[in-house]
């Protein structure tokens, strides 16, 4: 009984961690809801005989929901949202190239295009996109970027590059220990430019805060039941020991 309860508490701990991560990321543009790890059952064996002790086993890396988040029309010309399946290519501050849905763009001090997580946005050749100083910014639905330079005539635009995207169709993706989206082997899909973009909008996180709060409360109640179950097992064990105790003169 105690073994079963402790295993249940361990599983609830993992679920609560996932729920807490989702709730803390509700306001992050393009965030993808984390899902619990897939798992199976493991039986403890002694002398080649299965015992009554069964453990839940996590297999593989954690998955995430690819459900489309709500689009918010905020009007900023450097806000870009993905309207279809797919991802931007980004270069995190540390680690290898990864995928992202985050489209709140800005320009850093060196003139490179980056998102709100300070990740460099990559072009179709998977190189950081360096931008000239501009007064206006335009991006087509297939990722072609053009700007009106600060030192040029008003209303005249020049092409500066193509934002790298991938539809990632048929790919199995996961979030690594750094929270970045890649394939299971740490690589990323090829650039295919089959993603549809829209300017002036941001995709919100696909986390439903009400659902996550309900899951959190349910996990808390189950945790309390598990603790009570351990106390019950202790009482039963103590009662059994007293019954088996030999009478003393």
Automatic annotation (TrEMBL):
Family classification: Belongs to the flagella basal body rod proteins family.
Gene Ontology annotations of biological process type: bacterial-type flagellum-dependent swarming motility
GO cellular component terms? Answer: bacterial-type flagellum basal body
Compartmental location: Bacterial flagellum basal body
What does the UniProt keyword field contain? Bacterial flagellum, Cell projection, Cilium, Flagellum
Q: Does the keyword Isomerase apply?
A: no
Which InterPro entries does the record associate with it?
Answer: Flg_bb/hook_C_dom, FlgE/F/G-like, LlgE_F_G-like_D1
* Name under which the protein is recorded: Flagellar basal-body rod protein FlgF
Organism in which the protein naturally occurs: Celeribacter marinus
Q: Where is the Flagellar hook protein FlgE/F/G-like D1 domain?
A: 81-147
Q: For the Flagellar basal-body/hook protein C-terminal domain, which residue ranges apply? A: 198-238
């Amino acid at each position: 009984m105690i073994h079963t309860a402790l295993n249940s508490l361990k599983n609830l701990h993992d679920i609560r961690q996932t729920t807490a991560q989702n709730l803390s990321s509700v306001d992050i543009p393009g965030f993808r809801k984390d899902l619990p790890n897939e798992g199976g059952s493991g039986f403890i064996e002694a002398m080649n005989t299965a015992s009554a002790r069964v453990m839940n086993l996590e297999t593989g890396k954690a998955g995430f929901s690819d459900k489309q988040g709500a689009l918010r029309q905020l009007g900023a010309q450097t806000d870009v949202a993905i309207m279809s399946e797919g991802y931007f290519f980004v270069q995190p501050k540390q680690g290898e190239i990864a995928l992202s849905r985050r489209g709140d763009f800005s320009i850093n001090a060196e003139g490179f295009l980056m998102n709100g997580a300070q990740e460099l946005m990559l072009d179709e050749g998977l190189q950081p996109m360096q931008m000239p100083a501009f007064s206006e910014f335009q991006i087509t639905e297939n990722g072609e970027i053009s700007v009106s330079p600060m030192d040029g005539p008003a209303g005249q635009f020049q092409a500066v590059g193509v934002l790298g995207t991938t539809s990632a169709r048929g790919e199995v993706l996961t979030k690594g220990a750094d929270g970045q989206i890649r394939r299971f082997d740490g690589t990323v899909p090829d650039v295919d430019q089959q993603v549809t973009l829209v300017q002036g909008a941001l995709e919100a996180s696909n986390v439903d805060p009400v659902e996550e709060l309900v899951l959190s409360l349910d996990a808390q109640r189950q945790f309390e039941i598990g603790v009570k179950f351990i106390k019950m097992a202790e009482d039963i064990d103590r009662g059994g020991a007293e019954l088996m105790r030999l009478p003393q003169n």
